[in-house]
Structures are given as C-alpha cells and as structure tokens.
Structure prediction request, 442 residues.
Amino acid sequence: MKLNLKNIVVLISVAIIGLIAVQIVWITNAIEVRKSQFDQEVKTSLVEVTQEIPKVIRQNKETKFFQRQQQLNQGVTDINALINAMLDNTPFQKFSDKITKEQLDSLIQSQMKKRGITTPYIFGVFDATGNHLYEADSIAKNHTSELVSEGINIPVFVDDFMLTQPFISIIFPKKNNFIFKKMWLILSISLLLILAVIYAFYFTVNTIFKQKQLSEIKNDFINNMTHELKTPISTIQLACEALNDADMNSKESQQTFVTMIKDENTRLKGLVDTVLKTAILDKGQMKLQSEPLDLLEIIHKVRGNFSLQINQLNGKILLDNELSEMPLFGDNQHLTNVFQNLIDNAIKYTSKAPEIIISTAKTIDSYLIKVTDNGIGISKENLDKIFEKLYRVPTGDLHNVKGFGLGLNYVKSMIELHGGKIEVKSTKDKGSTFILSLPITE
Ligand SMILES: Nc1ncnc2c1ncn2[C@@H]1O[C@H](COP(=O)(O)OP(=O)(O)O)[C@@H](O)[C@H]1O
Ligand SMILES: [Mg+2]
Prediction:
C-alpha cells in the first residue's frame, strides 16, 4: 500500500476505531468482573448472616423462656403463649416465630455495611416451593418472582427439626447504578482518552490539509508573480534594445521608449510594493501616520482615479451620500489604498459593465461605508477566505483577471489598524457589498 495522505488517514481512522472497540470490550469486561465480584461479596455476607441466625434464635428462646417464667410467677396463664411454648423446638414451629423479619433485616444490613455495599436491597425468606415465610409487604410481593428466580440466595440451616429448608434471597434494584458509581473514575478517564485521541487526530488531519492548501496557494502566487513581472521586464528590455538601435535618432521616438520604460518601471515598483507591504504587515511593523482628514475627500479622489477606466467600460460609480463631510483622524495613504483596492476589485470581478455604488452613513460613534457592485459575487464557502492572504477564488471564466490575493488582506489589516471592521455580503452572480465601519476619531 502506498503511504499517501489518504491512505494514512484511512489507516489512522481504522486504528482509532479499533482502539475504541478494544476499549469498549475491555470496559464491558471490567463491568462484568465488578458485577460478579459484587455478587460474590453479597453471597459471603449472606453466609455470615446464616451463621448469625442460630445465635439470635437462641437468644430469642431465652428471652421467651424468661418471660414465661415471669408470667408463671405472677400467676398469669396465657393460653396462646402456652401453646407456642409447646411448639418450641418441634418441627411445627414456624421459621417466622423463631426470628423476626426485623432481626433478620438488621443482620443483613450490618453485614452489607461491613463490606461497603450501601445500595438498597430487597430480601425475602422462602420455603422450597417459593412461598414467603414471612408475611410479605407490598414491595416484597411485587418482587417475589424476581427474588425467587434471580436473587442471590442461600439456604438457612436452622436446626434439624425444620420440615423444609428455608432460603434467603436478596436483590439490589439499583445494582447497576452502584457499580457504575464505583467505576466512574476509570470510565471517565477512558472516555477522556478516547476524546483526546479523536481530537488530536482531527487536528492533525486538519493541519495537514491546510498546509497542503497553503502550498497550492503559494505556488499559484509564485506563478502569478512571475507572470506579472515578466511583462514589464520584457517590455523594458525591448525598449532598451530599441534605444540602443543605431537607427534610433529622432528625439520623439526616443522619448516614447523612455516613457515606456518609466511606466513599466512604475508598474514593477507597484508590484514590489504590494508584496513588501504585506511582508511588513506580517511582521506587525506597519505604523499609521495619522492626521486629521476628510474620508469623503478620499472617496472622491479614488473615484476620480478610476473615472477613465470606468468610462471605457461604460460603467459608473455612484455616490450615495448622506453626509457632506466625514472628518476622521487616520492615515491618508493607507485609507486611499483601501478604497483603491475595493473599487479595483469591484471593477475586476464583473463580467458586465460595472455599476458601483458607494454609500456613506454615520452612527453615534462610527462611519459606515458600503461599496456595492454588480459583479460575479462570491459563493458562501469562499466568503470567509477572501480576506486571507494570497487567497483567490478560483474563477473559471474570468481566468485572465490578474491579482495576488493580497488586496483584501491588506484592506482588512488597515481597517483593523484604524480600529474598524470589514464585512462582506455577497450573492453569487448578483454582486457583493463590502461594509466598512470606522470609529470616528478626530
Ligand atoms: N467585489 C468582488 N466581487 C467578487 N469577488 C471578489 C470581489 N473582491 C474580491 N473578490 C474575490 O476575492 C479574492 C481576493 O481579493 P483580493 O485580496 O483583492 O485579491 P486579488 O484581487 O489580487 O485577487 C479575489 O481573487 C476574488 O476572487
Ligand atoms: Mg484585489
């Protein structure tokens, strides 16, 4: 099997599922062991109870004997007591007459306590055919069949005279709860470990995919960049060759080529600047040179810069002004670049004649500027990413639109440096609106 990313993910997934399965099997086993341990302890307790029973019976006999003695001394003759006394130590004496249910209960309780079994129990004493030997209360009655068939039971050897062998049976309605409570620590540690492994796995895979995406984006950027640099460089080279040409005598044609070189050089400088600016932004070294300015003036200026381009495309940039001025303390150059970038995008990412609306408004403490276009829009899954550095929405039909995916990242950083926020709303094929809010500082 080739170890590519997909296979590794599959491999780790299988391993994790396997681990979880093993863990589950292990935990169920541990619970089973606990349960049988519990049953064993209960059984031992009951054995001790049966060993205590004869002692209690003997004590009961002695007390009864003394009571009768006293009654005789006082001349009282209780017929019932006399009959009972006659039955004593005969096979006809009922078990329930030898020891009371309460006495039995307290014996059981103290034995359970000794072994740390604190969960409530229900018990009953039965003859061999499953009949209650004590008058059963409603709880015991309701649980009769459970007690007889599923209870932990033990025979009671009272003495040789008993006609049938009674047995004590006991059940714990909240046994599972009790066992879970005892095991919560180990259960929660297992759960935490499983969650930790799943999370770490998720995180790793996520990082790998992000890194892969990043390297693709970087490749794109380098391709773009070289392409962009090539044009001015070769133009300059051609112009230089032309200037070198011996035939090139007229001042005018010389001038044309010099201007060409100058223009291309400016373009090169612009490209390098964009990249450098982002590099500086990256290191957090960008400092604003703030001064009192009018934001509205900046917007007008930028709009003017694009008028030629817009006219050529038969488009328009409308200003929807609520305000006559927008005084602000900010960096003139950077704020100009911000609007330059936004409008540049609005024109670039349109397949028809661009129609751009810039609207301004004011709240108590900030300016709200919206730049709306009728362009190609941005789909939902790309909307969060467009502010990321180097990110460009892959567009099939507008393939020749150039850019490095740095503009919006720069815009966002600048707006945030000014203490503001930028948001975008967009519908695919309808257009986009970039909403800036800038706190008013004067
Ligand atoms: N107004 C807009 N309409 C549609 N898509 C846009 C708009 N503005 C930006 N985008 C998308 O966001 C991406 C990032 O924009 P930006 O950072 O300015 O980079 P660039 O313009 O250099 O590609 C663009 O590549 C484009 O896909
Ligand atoms: Mg751009």
